[in-house]
Amino acid sequence: MASAEALTALSRWYLYAIHGYFCEVMFTAAWEFVVNFNWKFPGVTSVWALFIYGTSILIVEHMYLRLRGRCPLLLRCVIYTLWTYLWEFTTGFILRQFNACPWDYSQFDFDFMGLITLEYAVPWFCGAFIMEQFIIRNTLRLRFDKDAEPGEPTSPLALANGHVKTD
């Protein structure tokens, strides 16, 4: 098992970007259904979401690695939520300079410059919990075996009930 290596930062960024992109589409589809009862579930996003989510979750991964033994889960999720608001505001502000910001929260009661809104605090907090507990933790467990042939199991290892079995 000496050839199995952790995923590179670029590989993890890619997985995080795709995950965020997918969640954005699913969230906007669900929101459209809840607010407008639209059974078509049209989910939308922007290509900028790939960069925004990939980079943000990679930064949260670093926070997780530093904070996991130092503060409780709920406090970490509050920190991640605050980071999300800061990141959403910053990226939105930059994109707005080029007329490229894909979101506008101006219609919400508790928005700030239309770039962030407090109405999303609970969804962002729940997303932070899911991100740490499922996405980041499992992504960090993934390994890349550079010597493996595509479609073939690694030679000395066999899977037994989802666990690596070494004889």
Q: Globular, elongated, flat, extended or rod-shaped: what is the shape?
A: globular
Mean pLDDT: 90
Largest sheet: 2 strands, antiparallel
Secondary-structure element string: EHHHEEHEEE
- Walk across the major sheet and give the strand order: 1-4
Q: Enumerate the spans where pLDDT stays under 50 for 5 or more consecutive residues.
A: none
Q: Compute the gyration radius: what is it? A: 19 Å
Question: Cα distance, first to last residue?
Answer: 12 Å
The proportion of residues in beta strands is: 5-15%
Structural class from helices and strands?
Answer: mainly alpha
Number of helices: 4
Strands, count: 6
Measured as a percent range, the helix fraction is 55-70%
Q: How does this structure look, described?
A:
The strands form 3 sheets. This protein has a two-stranded antiparallel ribbon with strand order 1-4. Strands 2-3 form a two-stranded antiparallel ribbon. Strands 5-6 form a two-stranded antiparallel sheet. With 167 residues, the protein is mainly α. It is globular, with a radius of gyration of 19 Å. The protein is 56% helix and 10% strand. α1 crosses α2, α1 (9-36) packs antiparallel against α4 (121-141) and α2 runs antiparallel to α3 (73-97). It contains 4 helices and 6 strands; from the N terminus they run βαααββαβββ. The model has no long low-confidence stretch (mean pLDDT 90). β5 (158-160) and β6 form a beta hairpin. It starts with a strand and ends with a strand. This is Transmembrane protein 229B. Its main location: membrane. Keywords: Membrane, Transmembrane, Transmembrane helix. It comes from Mus spicilegus. InterPro entries: CmpB_TMEM229.
